[in-house]
UniProtKB/TrEMBL annotation:
<dbReference type="InterPro" id="IPR032979">
    <property type="entry name" value="ENGase"/>
</dbReference>
<dbReference type="Pfam" id="PF25529">
    <property type="entry name" value="Ig_ENGASE1_C"/>
</dbReference>
<protein>
    <recommendedName>
        <fullName>Cytosolic endo-beta-N-acetylglucosaminidase C-terminal domain-containing protein</fullName>
    </recommendedName>
</protein>
<dbReference type="GO" id="GO:0033925">
    <property type="term" value="F:mannosyl-glycoprotein endo-beta-N-acetylglucosaminidase activity"/>
</dbReference>
<feature type="domain" description="Cytosolic endo-beta-N-acetylglucosaminidase C-terminal">
    <location>
        <begin position="208"/>
        <end position="317"/>
    </location>
</feature>
<dbReference type="InterPro" id="IPR057882">
    <property type="entry name" value="ENGase_C"/>
</dbReference>
Length: 323
């Protein structure tokens, strides 16, 4: 809900401070329990470092012995599992030898307790050997992705079928990759960042109608003198909605990222398009107030990026406005 920058899928799209509680997601517990060395790992919400999504991360830093681990409670819940698989995805940025996975705690109707580890993508076999006695099951990821725009982030995805069980708790587990030890004094330092966690069933995937099914309009366009010579100010209301008869409403969409694209004539006959992030909306409207527009801008338009909870995105374009 706030930050000193704004990131989208690991990419920095704004370096401006912001505050918008409508963008706030579920907040993790910071009542932490450590199995292993007490207080060996400090856990904090970091608003200053590079993020995966929005303005903050959950950061783990400290020291950890080779065969030790640190368990941090993140969420408690009462999520009844159905017959279809449930997919988990989480993003991690870490230093060499620092691993983060997810520990999931379930209960059955007979109060049977089951603990499952969604292992990190690195050295899965070593993780299975290390935690086979501590968890009922260790699950290897079925897919690991590296973002081209932000290769420091690793996206790990795993799938679980626990029909009839109830998910009670989600923990982050910090551990080290065995067999990759160093002889220097820094070998036990631990540093990792958890960027996001998503949970979905196969039925909950986002549905976003194609861009030609939407109507994007600019209303109440007002130009005024700018803050200094060579600038004008633009105020405008941007709205978007599905055209009548276009079919189903979008399913699973949550945020609308708003951008402005300017066409600049830097030299005669040479036009360059520049995109700038403006903000986020949760409804089908966004008001732009006193946007500075240089007189060298020939025209501009607004881009509405429709974002589903599962990462699916669609871009809508407003008509061009002449400056």
């Amino acid at each position: 809900g706030r930050g000193y920058h704004y990131y989208f899928s690991g990419e920095n799209i704004s370096s401006a401070s912001w505050y918008n509680l409508s963008c706030q997601g579920f907040q993790p517990f910071l009542e932490l329990k450590s199995d292993g060395s007490p207080d060996s790992i400090e856990v904090l919400i970091d608003l200053k470092g590079a993020s995966y999504s929005g303005g903050g991360n959950l950061t783990f830093r400290g020291t950890l012995e080779d065969d030790d681990y640190f368990l941090a409670k993140l969420f408690e819940g009462d999520l009844l599992m159905g017959k279809s698989p449930v997919h988990f995805a989480f993003s991690v940025k870490s230093e060499v030898n620092s691993l983060v996975g997810l520990s999931l705690e379930f209960s059955s109707t007979t109060d049977k307790q089951t603990a499952i580890l969604l292992a990190s993508n690195e050295n899965v076999l070593g993780s299975m050997n290390q935690f086979s006695a501590k968890f009922n099951k260790v699950i290897a990821p079925f897919r690991v992705a590296v973002l081209q725009s932000a290769p420091e982030w690793i996206i790990t995805e795993g799938s679980i079928e626990m029909s009839g069980y109830t998910l009670r708790r989600i923990n982050a587990i910090c551990y080290r990759s065995l067999g990759r030890n160093s002889n220097n004094d820094s070998s036990h330092k631990f540093s990792a960042v958890l960027g996001h966690i998503s949970i979905k069933s196969s039925e909950s995937s986002s549905y976003l109608p194609p861009s030609n099914s939407w109507l994007v309009e600019t209303k109440h366009v007002k130009w005024s003198s700018g803050p200094s010579d060579g600038f004008k100010s633009l105020s405008v209301l941007i709205t978007w909605k599905l055209k009548e008869g276009s079919g189903d409403e979008p399913r699973g969409s949550k945020n609308f990222n708003i951008y402005v694209e300017r066409e600049n004539e830097e030299v005669p006959g040479s036009i360059r398009t520049v995109r700038e992030f403006l903000g986020v909306a949760q409804v089908g409207a966004f008001y732009v107030s006193d946007l500075d527009v240089h007189c060298g801008v020939l025209s501009l338009r607004f881009i509405v990026q429709v974002c589903g909870d599962d990462g699916a995105c669609l871009e809508l374009e407003s008509p061009w406005l002449s400056s």
